[in-house]
Design a protein that fits this description.
Blueprint lengths: L2 E4 L9 E5 L5 E5 L8 H21 L2 E2 L7 E2 L3 H8 L1 H32 L6 H8 L7 H11 L6 H4 L1 H4 L8 H29 L3 H9 L4 H12 L1 H16 L3 H6 L11 H10 L4 H26 L13
Antiparallel strand pairs: 1-3, 2-3, 4-5
Helix pairs in contact: 1-14, 2-14, 3-8, 3-11, 11-14, 13-14
Length: 318
Amino acid sequence: MTTQMTSTPPAAGNGKTARRRPDGSYVAQVGRPGFAWALPATFFFAVFAIAPLIMVAVLSFMSWNGLGSPQWVGTDNWSRVLDDPVMIKSIWLTLLVTVLGVAIQTPLSILLGVWAAGQQRNRAVLSVIYFIPLLLSSTAVSVLWRALLDPNFGIPAQATWLFGDGNLFGKQASAIGVLAFVATWQFTPFHTLIYQGAARAIPSVLYQAAEIDGAGRYRKFFHITLPQLRNSIVTSMILMIVGGLTTFETVLILTQGGPGTDTTISAYYMYQKAFKSFDFGAAAAIALALVVAATIISLIVVRVSGYDKMRGTMEGLS
C-alpha cells in the first residue's frame, strides 16, 4: 500500500483515504486494487481447475467405461480401490519415490544454488549448461534416458563390470533407483534456481558482520545462509512433494510400472485403471485421493515448518 505525507487532507476520490498523524500532518493512503482485477485469474482457475476437480469428484462415485452414460454406484469405487492390494502397494511406492526425491534433491539443490549465486570463475557458463535439463519436457527426458539405459544397446550393456547384466529395469531396487536418478537430473536445476535467487537476496551485511566476528565459510553457511533460505526450502519441498505424488510420464516411458507392479505408483495405476481397464470411476477415485493427499501433506509441511507465520526473510536485520 502506497503512502504519501501531506500538510493538508488529500482530495477525496480516486481510491485515496487520509490518516492524520500525531504531528498534524496527513498521510495519503492508496487503497488496494479491487476484486475486479482478480476476476480473469479467478475465472481461469475456476474453469480449468475447480470445475474439473468437481467433475472428477462426482465421477468417483459413478461407474463409467467411457461409453454410454455413467451410473451412480455410491462408494463402490472407493471400496474397491481401498481393498485393491496393487493400489495399497502403489501408495507405498509413491511415498518412497517422493521421499527419495526430497532427500536427494533438497541438499543437492541448496549446495548448487548457493554456489551459483556466487561470483566464481566460469559460474555463468556452467550454470547455463546445468540448467539445460530444465528446458526439456518430462517425456523428452524419459525417452532420452530410456535409450541411454537400454539393457541391449545402452550404457549398461557396454559397462557390464559396473551394471552387471545391464538390465536396470529388471529389478525393483534398480528400477526405482533409475526413476529417482532421472527425476533428480531433470528437476534439480529448477530447485537450484529457487535457491540461487534466494541466496542472492541475502543481505551482504550479514556476511560482513560474521567475517568481523571471525566466522569461516562453513559457519556462515550454517548460521546465515541456511536460516535465510528456510522459506525457500519449505516452498521447494512442497513442490517436490506434489511433483512426486503426481509423477506419471517417467514411469510410463521408463518402466511401464514393471517389473510386474514393482514401480506401479498411484498416478500410473490411475492411468491403467482409466485407459487400460476402462474403469474411469475407480481412476477418478484414485485421482481425487492424490489431490487430497498432496493437499494434506503440503498443509502439514507448512504448519510444522512455521512457514505460515513467517513475515519475511530478513530475520537477521530486525
